[in-house]
Amino acid sequence: MIEVKNISKKFKKNIEKNKVVEFFADNDISFTAKEGEVLGILGPNGAGKTTLLRMIAGIMEPTSGTILFDSKSYKESDMEIKKNIAFLSGNTKLYKDLSPYELLEMCGNYYGVSKNELEKRIKKIEKDFDMSSFINQRIGNLSTGQTQRVGLARCVVHNPKYYILDEATSGLDIILSQIILNFIKEEKKKGKCILYSTHYMEEAENICDKVLLMHKGKIIKYGTPEEIEKETNTSNLRDAFFKLIGGVENEQ
Fold first, then answer.
1. Are 153 and 86 spatial neighbours (Cβ–Cβ below 8 Å)?
2. Would you call 63 helix, strand, or coil by DSSP?
3. What's the rounded Cα separation, in Å, for the pair 41 and 191?
């Protein structure tokens, strides 16, 4: 279980010469994500989704608040937690001079997977993600779709307990998007805890058990898609979001 308690992240920016202002990318965020659950983190660009997920993944340190994985914090169990996390974003960079096989082997070794077990996992991943035609090619020569499959595959090789997926389908075609969505559904069945950030509201309705609707660094609604739609008297999350922020005209 992942528990996020009153997380905030403050930044500074220069707006004029010798004038600096502070702002919150995320402000007092709290929620819980359980095993066997897909929690969608929804909102437009700039809502604070990526900053939030980077803090949860241990890439960025929060200004205040607490993040717990099965009641353990990064301060006391940093490596143990990170070995159980898979983090994927739409712009995740891979080693272009390696082959997918070499990358998976390297990742497996890093996470301490035994040699025999690693060979079995790579063979299964190769089959599950239909990678046999390019498993030994240089990653730098692969297509966008093939590279995305490799990026997803490296998240699976150490059998993580937690998935943190940030805009994982952004810019992908319908086939590749569906591969990732099917993968999420299968990992959920295995009892994995999955955080899934997207600005595609319809996509979230399809796979998420609960959702956080975020706007300008704050949570504006938290619950199941059905609960949110009922409370806002709407029929979908897109309409619910705009009703909660008072309509798109208020953003102009």
1. no
2. coil
3. 19
Query: Quick check: 30 and 62 in contact, CB under 8 A?
Result: no
Residue 224: closest CA among 17, 2, 8, 31 = 31
The structure tokens listed for 194 are 């999955």
CB–CB of 120/157 below 8 Å? Answer: no
- Closest C-alpha among 174, 107, 179, 180 to residue 139: 107
d(CA 42, CA 51): 13
Q: What is the mean pLDDT of each run of 10 residues along the chain (252 residues)?
A: 95 78 91 95 89 93 95 91 86 85 93 91 89 94 86 88 87 79 90 91 89 94 93 92 78 52
User: In the chain, which ranges are continuous DSSP H helix?
Assistant: 49-56, 74-82, 100-110, 115-128, 144-156, 174-189, 201-207, 225-232, 237-245
Tokens 């010469």 locate to: 17
**In the block, which residue shows the tokens 């403050």?**
10
CA atoms within 13 A on the CB side of 1: 8
CB 199 within 8 A of CB 167: yes
pTM, two decimals, is: 0.86
Among residues 7, 11, 23, the alpha carbon closest in space to that of 64 is found at: 7
Q: How far is CA 191 from CA 67, 163, 202, in A?
A: 20, 11, 24
Strand order in the sheet with 162-166: 85-89, 162-166, 193-198, 37-42, 210-215, 218-223
